[in-house]
Amino acid sequence: MASLIESGWTYLITHFSDFQLACLGSFFLHESVFFLSGLPYIFLERAGWLSKYKIQTKNNTPAAQEKCISRLLLYHFCVNLPVMCFSYPVFKYMGMRSSLPLPSWKVVSTQILFYFILEDFVFYWGHRILHTKWLYKHVHSVHHEYATPFGLTSEYAHPAEILFLGFATIIGPAITGPHLITLWLWMVLRVLETVEAHCGYDFPWSLSKFLPVYGGADFHDYHHRLLYTKSGNYSSTFVHMDWIFGTDKGYRKLKALKSIGDEATHKEN
């Protein structure tokens, strides 16, 4: 497996420059993973399949879904791609490389774990700031246009928010200067995580069922359903920041009441 990955990577660095791989390659990878993981939730919602796992009964209209996709393409090409290109010199200065040898899995896993923890911390505070009255009204309300989220709404946001919260995603790699393959793996995992958190389905095989510290779709869906002043659940990936600062009290209370109701129904049956 390692030799196969090295062979594929050798082909890439032989045929493409560092700039092409870091900018265009990263953009192509992001778009592929994002849309391939997010589009199926649109089809699930329209077809009504797996509806028993859907968190909210309300569905988005096809027009709302299409608006989301068209805006995403605009923002990705006009905001994300330029940011990737302009940030390339910074990453190179901090030590990012694409050459062989590839980093060990120990190094890759350690760096990505660090990125997840740091991103969650920075995102939590940035997200809370966006829920202040003025910033919510003029910036963050765009993301909350979809009270019933689906996978692709994870990146539907005001351009200012894309830059503001995007900082949380890139700060880890920016300060560590990783190998490009580590950066790509981090990007793929982060995209899959945020799409899952916005998917609108609480599946029995969701990671949150097996990893209590992971938030997941049910945790974040609660954030979208409530008014901005009372939402809570500001974290991106984990739940510990909301627990430490008490911004998940409403969610936990709701879960406790639901658990009591489920137990009462079970006893009656």
Automatic annotation (TrEMBL):
InterPro entries noted in UniProt: Fatty_acid_hydroxylase, Sterol_Desaturase_Related
Domain Fatty acid hydroxylase: 113-247
Pfam families: FA_hydroxylase (PF04116)
Subcellular localization(s) per the UniProt record: Membrane
Lineage: superkingdom: Eukaryota
Record keywords: Membrane, Transmembrane, Transmembrane helix
Primary localization: membrane
Gene Ontology CC: one annotated term: membrane
GO molecular function terms listed in the Swiss-Prot or TrEMBL record: iron ion binding; oxidoreductase activity
Regions crossing the membrane: 21-43, 72-91, 112-130, 162-186
Biological processes, Gene Ontology terms: lipid biosynthetic process
Keyword Electron transport: no
Entry similarity comment: Belongs to the sterol desaturase family.
The protein's name: OLC1v1006086C1
Organism of this sequence: Oldenlandia corymbosa var. corymbosa
